[in-house]
């Protein structure tokens, strides 16, 4: 009888010990899990200084904002590439900034326009060139975009409005000061640049 009591106590102690060890392991794992979750949540919270006052701001999922960044990059490239003034230095500066956002297809189009004398005409006629983006469509499966807009060429005596439709592809790259969105446009081409109107300015 005594031996049986001792064996039962040993079994009970063993069960209690194993239960305690299992519970301790569970507590440790749960602690690591909740700590990890807290660290992840804290990384999504950032503080922005507003006139020296820290304001809590929540970081959103990068993937949710990516299509917005793609469109912003496409609009930025077209604005830099097609916003021109009768100033060689200004044209070169804008073109140089735009070429950081695109592969060699941008350089090829720039060379093509330069060889046609487009930039010389801008300077010689004291023209201003600007664009207006109507819409940008994205095909996320093919990483393809299409830009729809208008190009305005303002001269001393007239204002020429041309349709501007381009297309190409986009690719994620590392962000840099020259490419803050981390997007590279590829295989870009102009598919429609027909003249829509040519309005003569009133001279008084």
TrEMBL record:
TM ranges are: 12-36
Q: Which InterPro entries match?
A: Conjug_transposon_TraK (IPR022276)
- What keywords appear on the UniProt entry? Membrane, Transmembrane, Transmembrane helix
Q: What is this protein called?
A: Bacteroides conjugative transposon TraK protein
Report the source organism. Epilithonimonas mollis
């Amino acid at each position: 009888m005594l031996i049986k009591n001792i064996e039962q106590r040993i079994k009970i102690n063993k069960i209690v010990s194993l239960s305690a060890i299992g519970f301790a392991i569970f507590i440790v794992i749960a602690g690591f899990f909740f700590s990890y979750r807290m660290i992840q949540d804290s990384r999504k919270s950032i503080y922005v200084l507003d006139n020296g006052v820290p304001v809590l701001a929540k970081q959103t999922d990068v993937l949710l904002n990516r299509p917005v960044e793609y469109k912003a990059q496409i609009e930025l490239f077209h604005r830099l590439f097609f916003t021109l003034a009768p100033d060689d230095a200004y044209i070169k500066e804008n073109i140089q900034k735009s070429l950081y956002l695109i592969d060699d297809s941008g350089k090829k189009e720039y060379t093509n326009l330069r060889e046609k004398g487009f930039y010389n005409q801008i300077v010689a006629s004291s023209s201003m060139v600007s664009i207006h983006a109507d819409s940008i469509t994205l095909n996320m499966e093919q990483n393809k975009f299409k830009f729809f807009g208008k190009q305005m060429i303002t001269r001393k005596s007239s204002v020429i409005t041309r349709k501007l439709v381009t297309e190409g592809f986009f690719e994620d790259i590392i962000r840099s000061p020259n490419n803050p969105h981390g997007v590279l446009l590829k295989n870009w081409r102009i598919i429609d640049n027909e003249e829509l109107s040519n309005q003569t300015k009133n001279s008084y």
